[in-house]
Amino acid sequence: MISNIPKWMIGLFGNKLAPNVKVISTIFLSPQVKKISFRGDISEWDFTIGYASVIRVSETEFRNYTISYHDKENGVFEIIFHIHGNGTGSKFVDSLKVSDELFISPPRGKKLYETNKQQFFSGDETSLGVACAWLPLLKKNQQQFQFYFELDEINKNVPECLGLENYTVFPKNNSFRNEKWISTLPLFQSQQWKTANIALVGNVRSVQAFRKVLKDKKLGTIYSQGYWLEGKKGL
Q: How far is CA 119 from the centre of its chain?
């Protein structure tokens, strides 16, 4: 779904965009990372890893977010939000409190994994939800996996708070956009990772840099999805 819809077009959707879930709990894992639990009818939703839901953040604006946990039986799900800057989405999420009602669409998109390969994942704060959703599946399938995160100093302990495993946190100092630095990462020198499944998400420029290096090295099967880009709204 596009990030902005004219008011006249909103009217065409009618009740389809009416609030359909309620906030049941909120917690800040850091000053910039907020985990929110929702309740609603999710019995028919598809929670394939890599899919994202559209959230209505104003009368005419929408943003994509990834569900990090779900319990269909009880109609409960969670999303981990990165609150950064003064964007419409960040301000809306920051304001959400228990009992608030809002519209969230069923997840849709493209998957990021193959079950029969080793798994490598890179991302930033916007990617933590995908990692959390993925971890139980990776452990259930007894797959070898590694998470790389580029995080601001204020958020460096969030992966631990979320119970993530096999992760490395790197400072957000543009290293993930430095092709020479990426090419020297020890993981990419190992023969056992040459056929891995590689998921690159988060900042568009970081995704592009990793993708170029890995394609040049002919490493793995690459899946990529940019979640945000400086200066662009509602990517």
A: 16
Alpha-helix runs per DSSP H in the chain: 7-13, 88-95, 128-140, 158-161, 179-183, 204-217
Predicted structure pTM score: 0.91
* Per-domain boundaries in the chain: 7-108, 112-228
The rounded average pLDDT for each run of 10 residues, N- to C-terminus, in the chain (235 residues) is: 55 72 98 98 95 92 94 98 88 97 94 84 96 95 94 98 97 94 89 88 96 91 89 60
Q: What is the DSSP string of 76-124?
A: EEEEEEE--TT-HHHHHHHH--TT-EE-BPPPEE-----TTS-EEEEE-
Residue 173 makes CB contacts below 8 A (sequence gap 6+) with none
What is the CATH code of the structural domain delimited by 7-108?
A: 2.40.30.10
3-state helix, strand, coil in the chain (%, to 5): 30, 35, 35
Region at 119 (left for phi over 0; alpha for psi -120 to 50; beta for the rest)? beta
CA distance 165 to 49: 17
CATH number attached to the domain at 112-228: 3.40.50.80
Query: Do β-strands 197-203 and 119-123 pair in parallel, antiparallel, or remain unpaired?
Result: parallel
Query: What CA–CA distances, in Å, run from 4 to 21, 31, 52, 83?
Result: 21, 27, 17, 19
